[in-house]
Amino acid sequence: MERLVEPGLYREAMSRLVAAVHVITTHGEEGRAGFTATAVASVSDSPPTLLVCLNRRIRSASAFRQAGRFAVNMLAGEHQAVAESFGGRTAASGEPRFSVGHWREGALGVPCLQGAIAVFECRLVEARTIATHDVLVGRVEAVTLGPDGGKLAYLGRSYRVI
Ligand SMILES: Cc1cc2nc3c(=O)[nH]c(=O)nc-3n(C[C@H](O)[C@H](O)[C@H](O)COP(=O)(O)O)c2cc1C
C-alpha cells in the first residue's frame, strides 16, 4: 500500500489537536474494563449517537463488542489520576484500574464516574473495523450531567485543565 504521509508526521500533527479526555468503560463477562480515550465524537442528536475509536490491541477490546454497551465518562480537571490509571502506561488492566476515582453502576449496568463533567451511557449499535481500530457507534440511552467546571484536556502529549 502506498504510504503518502508518515505515521510519525500524522501523530505530530494530531498532538496539536486540543482533545477532551474521556474514560470509556464497560462491564463484560470478565468484569469491569475501561480505557482512556480522546477519539470520541458526537455523530447526531436525533437520536443521540456518538462514536469512540478503540485500538483493537487494547486487552479489553473484545469486551466492548461482547457487552454491547459502554459509558463515555467526560473527565473533569481533577481527574488526571483517573486518566493515568486508564491510560495504559501502567501494568494495571481491568478491575484494578477502578481503584482510582469513585464509580457507580449506571442505568445500563456500566461503570459511571462520580463527578464527571458528563456521562453518556450507550448501547452499541455498530462496530466497524478501520485500520488498527474499531469504531464503536453508541446510541445514547442515558446522560448524567456533573459539575460544569474545569475540563481535562490533552494537548502536546500532556494534560491541561481548560
Ligand atoms: C490521553 C490518552 C488518550 C488516549 N486515547 C485513546 C483513544 O482515543 N483510543 C484508544 O484506543 N486508545 C487511546 N489511548 C490509549 C489507551 O488508553 C490504552 O492503549 C489502553 O488503556 C491500554 O489498555 P490495556 O493496557 O488494557 O491494553 C489513550 C491514552 C491516553 C493517555
Automatic annotation (TrEMBL):
Cross-referenced SUPFAM superfamilies: FMN-binding split barrel
E.C. numbers: 1.5.1.37
Top-rank EC class of the record's enzyme: oxidoreductase
Cell division among keywords: no
GO biological process, alphabetically ordered: pyrimidine nucleobase catabolic process
Keyword field: Monooxygenase, Oxidoreductase
Superkingdom: Bacteria
Record-annotated Flavin reductase like domain positions: 14-161
Annotated source species: Starkeya nomas
Protein name: 4-hydroxyphenylacetate 3-monooxygenase reductase component
Any one GO molecular function term: FMN binding
